[in-house]
Amino acid sequence: MVSEKTPFGKVGTYLLFAGPTTFAFFTVVILPFLFGVYLTLTNWNGLSATYVFVGLKNYRMVFEDRAFWSSFGLTLRYVAYTVVLTNVIAFTLAYLLTSGIRGQNFLRAGFFVPNLIGGIVLGLIWRFVFSNVLVYVGKRFGWELFLRSWLAHPDKAFWALVIVSVWQSSGYMMVIYIAGLMGIPKDLVEAATIEGATGLQRLRYVILPLLTPFTTVCIFLSLQRGFIVYDLNKALTEGGPYKSTELVAMHVYEKAFLAQQYEIGQSEAFFLFAMIVGVTLAQVYLGKRLEVEQ
Amino acid sequence: MVRKLVFFLIAVLALSAAMSVTASAKVNITFLNSKGEIQAQLEEIAALYNEIAKDVTVEVIPCPVGQSPFEKVVSMYASGNAPTIAMVDAGDVKKFQDKALNLTGERWVQDAIPGSLDMATLEDGTVVGFPFAVEGYGLIYNKKVLDKALGKSFDPSSIRTRKDLQALFEELKNAGVAPLVISPLDWSLGAHFFSIAYAAQSPDPKQVDAFLKDLRAGKVDLQQNSIVNGLLDTFDVMRAYNIDKDDPLSGTYDRGSYLLGTGEVAMWFMGNWAWPQLGELDPEGEYGFLPVPISDNPDDYGNSQIPVGATKFLILDREQSSEAEQQAAKDFLNWLVYDAKGQDMLVNKLSIIPAFKNITLEPRDPLAKSILQYVRAGKTLQFVLDLPADHWRMVGAFMQKYLGNAISRDELLDEIENYWKNVK
After folding, report:
1. B222 close to B398: Cβ distance less than 8 angstroms
2. If pLDDT is split at 50, 70 and 90, which confidence band does A150 have?
3. Residues B164/B291, Cβ–Cβ less than 8 Å
4. Which of A62, B8, B130, B340 is 20 to 30 A (C-alpha) from B84?
5. Terminal-to-terminal C-alpha distance of chain B
């Protein structure tokens, strides 16, 4: 066996167990990432054989790209709504489904299922629902709300995106919350009950504080998902009508490959990366501070 | 256990070595198809060619709907997996000049219709692309529906002005037939409809180029341009008679072809690439093109012409393909142009209007026939293809806003002027 005592032995053990993974991670994630960052400082268009170093010019272009900033603003709005709605709904479902109602295992599986469908398929299904099924229902019963396809109206198309995202990811977050709720010691809740705490008080002063680590994880996941969503955006609205629901990931992609301004798209992608890292780190840090000892 | 494993590994290695030996006798070439509507037909042709040319296998790869061929080809190059033959949009051909094989010496270069190689010829005269399809667009009419609604045989040459068109719409409406459907697709509205306004500026392509240059330089006032306004006036008429008037932005391409093919509407603004879908719904139907009129004077340029041009080009890869693969790809193109079977496949199976003089086969599909009539009568507008890469997406979005009544005409023209001023 390799000895763990010497420094050399430690490295050996590490390489034995984590070496292949480290190698794979380094070559397919770290290296391309660093190379990508380097490319933002050049004028490479993604195709030509030669390119030159241009310094920070691309980043200046990012700041001048008005469409990027409006997409970014829209994404912030989208993230705010989806994070709040997803977590509120996921927690509510988790709370109900751990309270011992009938068929709760079946219901848990049911709420989780949307998460198993890929974004593109999901987008196409909902596209059909919004532009055909709901319109049919609207015409049949004369409901003003559904008379016209939601996807043809900028605000409603935005809400269609939010609804489908929440529908998709709340099941996943629900599973995490359920795991958290099941891990809360029964004696604490019982003690609170004996002390005369009402249901709401138990929730507010016992359950929620103990659940903070899980809330942090869920908010982190939904934040990160919200910022980089692309497949659903592409399949459900295609950024339409008239580019009014183009979220930032889609804008970056179109800038690079459709407008064929690869270097600017790449810089915007890196900028987006930095923003996501900033926001999520801040969120995790704050979340950690809210945690309590049992 | 270990010995078994070693033995197994050796067996696998030997097997894969054997497989690669047998594979090397055959040349595999890939064909990236960016005309989704002919994917199935192309696969049939590939299968047929694979039988004829025994040592060559052509594999057809589709370009996903909604992804531009440029994106797809770039990503395939980046992954070291470039297609031997790639079908790209006319405006993108020259961007691949570092990667594309020089085709100047090919026989078909001499047989190409004048002008069809313009988008694929570099400044030094090198030809890097094969003009795959000539396409045209306009208002497609369903003759059966028109005849029935009008009570007489419809004569397309009777519609020469906006007034004529409006009168026809009104007559159809009174006869209880929905006059037309506008598919609110950005590429249709941006790359096709609005670019009529560029093409109709002048019969001289150089003047059109100059107009586009002036647009870039911000020297054009679109509000004062009578052709642009004329085209939009016609668009206003079309909007008013659109079957989807109440919900103009929800339509899809499939809905358009369905409505026209089943006779629910009499006209649809689209191009001859729509035939595979229309033909499936209504194989015996009679269809043809009407120009989109831009004024009330029948003699104005653009009122009796439809835009026609070579829109899709094939480029061969010289960077990641072997000599044998490049040769096989060249042979395949020659087969399409010079072999009787290949010509038949191109014209009849793919419903394509070839860009080569030596192919004399008459197309069977009515839309291609209609375009050929316009071409032979010399009544064509330039199909403006030399537009910025994101022109269709951006101007398409502005046109969608206008179609959906979200902006006024002044705002529309402002946005378009701004787009041109800031485009790369």
Report:
1. no
2. confident
3. no
4. B340
5. 64
On the question of pLDDT at A127 being above 60, the answer is yes
Q: How many CB pairs under 8 A join A and B?
A: 73
Q: Label residue B302 left, alpha or beta by phi (over 0 means left) and psi (-120 to 50 means alpha).
A: left
Facing B71 at nearest CB: one of A147, A257, A261: A257
Chain B partners of A135 at a C-beta cutoff of 8 Å? 250
Q: What pLDDT is attached to residue A24?
A: 94
Position B413 scores a pLDDT of: 92
**With a CB-CB cutoff of 8 Å, which residues 13-52 of chain A face chain B?**
46-49
Which of A258, A262, A263, A266 to mutate: most B Cβ within 10 Å?
A: A258
Question: Length of chain B in residues, anyone?
Answer: 424
At residue A74 the predicted structure's pLDDT band, cuts being 50, 70 and 90, is very high
ipTM summary value: 0.77
> What is B136-308+385-422's CATH number, 3.40.50.150, 3.40.190.10, 2.40.30.10, 3.40.640.10?
3.40.190.10
Q: Which CATH number fits domain B23-135+309-371: 3.30.559.10, 3.40.190.10, 2.60.120.1440, 3.90.226.10?
A: 3.40.190.10
Residue among B405, B216, B390, B148 nearest A265 (CA): B390
Structure tokens at B137: 């667009």
Asked if B404 lies within 8 A of A49 by C-beta distance, the reply is no
To the nearest whole Å, the CA of A70 is away from the closest chain B CA by 15
pLDDT of residue B11: 52
Residue of chain B whose alpha carbon sits nearest to that of A256: B71
